[in-house]
Amino acid sequence: MNPATSEQPATDTVDLSVQVGPLHLSNPLMTASGTAGLGLEMEPFFDLAEAGAIVVKTLTKAPRHGNPMPRLVETPSGLLNSIGLPNKGIDHFIEQVLPRLAGHASCLVINIAGTCTGEFGELASKLDGLPGVDGLELNISCPNVEGGDLPFGRDPDVVHRLVGDVRSATALPIITKLTPNVSDIAAVAKAAEDGGSDAVSLINTLLGMAVDWRTGRPGLGTVVGGLSGPAIKPVALRMVWEVSRSVAIPVVGIGGITSADDVLEFLCAGATAVQVGTTHYRTPDAIPRLAAELSRLLAEEGRTSARDVIGSMRTG
Ligand code: SIN
């Protein structure tokens, strides 16, 4: 037997658990909002309890039909979307979906968006204390709603006030999801932290567009949409690194994760956990696959805990 191999920890002794503010996750893998429906849609593919957390598609106060078709365009290594937050509204979720979903995930995070800053607090207070709800993610960064990119997510003063409103409305842990479509994402992250956010998640999609020159038609019904997938990973890594050096709260990395190496790169750059998104459209059971692969890679390197990798990037 190779002596080096015999010294590796067994994969089942590798501890994948991480702490995102008050949320204890059994592994650093969360579903990215919008790519796993309201959670139950993923049950044919994996046991929801295998994810560190399930984050549901954004819920709004009033039902929304979403944007005109086409809503999706595939690009080299990426996916452009302009979905427009279709959902049946928060009351429908609480009455019809949550009773079926509660208890299935080991950690359930509800993603919410208001049409004005005050509505975020209203949505948060409706969810406060409901059985099965473990945390909130504030979508202050959707690029696909009326008027384009939400103004809330770009202005640190507005973010500070909005997060403060939600903080006063609920005791639930708050994760604030940030837009990359700003010149200084660290300033927005700091405003979220100062407003009372327990963590920040980043990045939501990068503004982009597609066009067919033959027909002269844009690829998306709204012309401009948000780009996700492997194409945005280097931008996301850079922003995670910048933000993790600017705030004391945990950073959840999002952007083009398709492999366990990608996950560990985000952790190394400063993320405490990650969200897995676009890859779900090719590999709906990506979360359990990545969890197994994470244990294997860490064991191969003689590591016993995923937490040891967090923020381990050296620049000097
Ligand atoms: C959408 O529904 O348009 C996407 C949501 C988002 O990017 O936040």
Description:
This protein has helices spanning 3-6, 90-101, 117-127, 156-169, 185-195, 233-244, 260-268, 286-300, and strands spanning 18-20, 23-25, 29-31, 54-55, 72-75, 78-81, 108-112, 135-139, 174-177, 199-202, 206-209, 211-212, 217-218, 224-228, 251-254, 273-276. By secondary structure, it is an alpha/beta fold. The protein has a single domain (11-67, 84-207, 226-308), classed as TIM Barrel (Alpha-Beta Barrel), CATH 3.20.20. The strands form four sheets. The chain has an eight-stranded parallel sheet with strand order 3-16-15-10-9-8-7-4. It has a four-stranded antiparallel sheet with strand order 5-6-14-11, with no helix packed on it. It has a two-stranded antiparallel sheet with strand order 1-2. Helix 3 (117-127) packs parallel to helix 4 (156-169), helix 4 runs parallel beside helix 5 and helix 5 (185-195) crosses helix 6 (233-244). Residues 34, 58, 81-85, 139, 141-144, 204-205, 226 line the site of succinic acid.
Number of helices: 8
Averaged pLDDT: 95
User: Which CATH C-level class is it?
Assistant: Alpha Beta
The description of the largest β-sheet is:
8 strands, parallel
> What is the 3D shape?
globular
Work out the radius of gyration. Answer: 19 Å
Strand content: 15-25%
Order of helices and strands: HEEEEEEHEHEHEHEEEEEHEHEH
Low-confidence stretches: none
CATH architecture: Alpha-Beta Barrel
What name goes with the CATH superfamily? Answer: Aldolase class I
How far is the N terminus from the C terminus?
37 Å
- The total beta strand count reads 16
Number of individual domains: 1
Structural class: alpha/beta
Q: Report strand order across the widest sheet.
A: 3-16-15-10-9-8-7-4
CATH topology: TIM Barrel
Bound molecules: succinic acid
Helical amount among residues, as a percent range?
25-40%
